[in-house]
Amino acid sequence: MYVGITVQNINHPNYSEKGHYLNVRWQDFAEASGFTLIPLTSVSLADQMIREKYIQAIILSGGGNLSKDFYNKNILKENNNNIDLDREIIEKRLIKYSLEINIPLIGICRGMQALAMYFGSQLSRVEKHVKTRHVLDYHCPVLEKNIIREVNSYHDYGVMDADVPKGFKINVKYLNTVEQMFHDNQKMLGIMWHPEREDKFSNLDIELFRKFLGLK
Q1: Which CATH superfamily is domain 2-125+158-213 in?
Q2: 188-210 per-position pLDDT tens digit
Q3: Whole-angstrom distance, CA of residue 140 vs CA of residue 205
Q4: What residue spans define the domains of the chain?
Q5: Taking a C-beta distance cutoff of 8 angstroms, is the pair 215, 30 a contact?
Q6: Residue 92 pLDDT > 90, yes or no?
Q7: Of 79, 76, 105, which is closest to residue 90 (Cα–Cα)?
């Protein structure tokens, strides 16, 4: 299975150049989970992958901030720095494509925030979520089992449980913020932790991705 994944456009620290960033651990996680990643590095490439129906699933990666006007929805003023507008164009088109074709889409951290804003939610600043770990106790409808696990956390903005967008169900909460959500009738899933950032990949994350993507 070919899975398109968004990347960050970044400035080189030593040269007057721009590049694309994607944690190399994503490739390792994809191999462990049994799918192939296609980094979507430009709007034109994303359009081509969509037009040719080359990708069978989508990952909206984490890292970076969303603009306050993402999909014409307001967001807190503080969350308006280091904005990658091309990335936002790609994200919106990928979400629209997933809705039209009903292919699986998984939003990771910032990617889940993009999903929430696309469907009319707003973000709020949160505390005790940056460079921390915490335990989650929940029932996963995708894996159809109860889970107690520890996850990483790297975000200072999140979706409050009262602001979950219409059409989505909250699956996991932590300190009144949504940690995992899924759409009622579309193949859309959002999680706020980073599977790729674990020293040893969680079998639960691998199983979640495989099951949600329809891999056997």
Answers
A1: Class I glutamine amidotransferase (GATase) domain (3.40.50.880)
A2: 999 999 999 999 999 999 999 99
A3: 11
A4: 2-125+158-213
A5: no
A6: yes
A7: 105
